[in-house]
Design goal:
This protein is of the alpha+beta class. It has helices at about 30-40, 80-95, 100-105, 115-130, 135-145, 160, 185-215, 220-245, 250-265, 275-290; strands at about 5-10, 15-20, 50-55, 60-65, 70-75, 150-155. Strand 4 and strand 5 (about 70-75) form a beta hairpin. The longest helix is centred in the middle third of the chain and has 30 residues, at about 185-215.
């Protein structure tokens, strides 16, 4: 029967399963296909964004974008175009439900298990959909696949099973989340946090006092109020970026740093050069600490 049997959402960088459909099939070939899907999920970063692994009875399709990838097991005669339409819709639904920060911080398998309801709903829709209901999506996806066809893999390819652990035993896939933790906080990092909190407090206090005066007497001073509040928010987010993992950390760090610099230059007159240099110096130190504090490397084999 031509249909979608199973679907899941995984994190690309380590293959951590975030959510999956809860329907179970006990066909031996299907269970073997599930094992291969798990192995493939851990090495998705090595492949292009679209791919298909075909077998005799089942096929695995995957679509990755940013931090996540959607994967599905379908019958071999199920339309590849329809499968990628399904994965695309699933990806949109997941991206609308969860942000990149929560995805990056997920530390256990199936952290977003409640998303299963949406997976089931979308899967049922595509398994029951008529041609007229999906014609528009079909044509659009057909053009995309012609322009950028998915990589073709063999389901029986044992490299899918061996690739995840640099020569580890075939067919083994640990479904416990890897321990991704930030490196230890250094004394210099603690100093940057303290200085950042102090700068944030100074900006907030000055901003509140200036706001009271501006709203009562000087309405032209609103720009200065904003120039105090923006560095306050930047200080808060710099502390967050230093303490917690977040995707696109480098971009966020530079945006926050330049925001602090521009706002303090704008405040020249309300602040002297030494004060401006102090605030920019603290922002520079915080940015450096954020960029140099990395995730702890994954242990090669922890035996669990």
């Amino acid at each position: 029967m031509s249909m979608i049997f199973f679907a899941c959402v995984v994190r690309v960088r380590d293959g951590l399963p975030l959510s999956a459909s809860t329907d179970f099939h006990f066909n031996r070939d299907f269970l073997e296909c599930r094992k291969r899907l798990k192995a493939l999920s851990s090495i998705l970063a090595q492949y292009p964004s679209r791919g298909t692994a075909k077998g005799r009875d089942f096929s695995i399709h995957f679509l990755s974008s940013g931090d996540i990838a959607c994967m599905a097991i379908c019958s071999s005669n199920y339309s590849t175009i329809m499968a990628f339409c399904f994965l695309e819709e699933l990806q949109w639904e997941f991206a609308a439900s969860y942000d990149t920060t929560s995805i990056g911080l997920a530390s256990r398998p199936y952290a977003f298990l409640e998303f299963d309801n949406i997976i089931q709903k979308v899967k049922c829709h595509f398994n029951c959909a008529s041609g007229s209901q999906t014609k528009a999506n079909w044509e659009k996806m057909e053009e995309e696949l012609k322009f950028r066809p998915p990589i073709q893999l063999k389901l029986e390819d044992t490299e899918l099973m061996n690739g995840m652990t640099n020569g580890g035993p075939a067919g083994v896939h640990v479904e416990v989340a890897p321990t991704y933790r930030m490196e230890r906080v250094t004394p210099l990092g603690i100093l940057s946090l303290v200085l950042n909190i102090m700068c944030g407090a100074l900006n907030l206090i000055r901003g509140v006092h200036l706001a009271e005066y501006s709203f009562q007497e000087d309405h032209e001073g609103i720009g200065n109020v904003i120039a105090f509040f923006l560095p306050f928010l930047a200080c808060v987010f710099q502390c967050y970026l230093y303490l917690f993992y977040s995707s696109a950390r480098k971009v966020k760090t530079f945006v926050l740093f330049f925001s602090v610099c521009l706002c303090n230059i704008y405040l020249y007159g309300l602040r002297n050069l030494w004060q401006i240099a102090f605030h920019i110096g603290v922002a520079s130190l915080s940015s450096y600490q954020i960029l140099t504090r990395q995730l702890m490397e994954k242990q090669p084999d922890c035996g669990v």
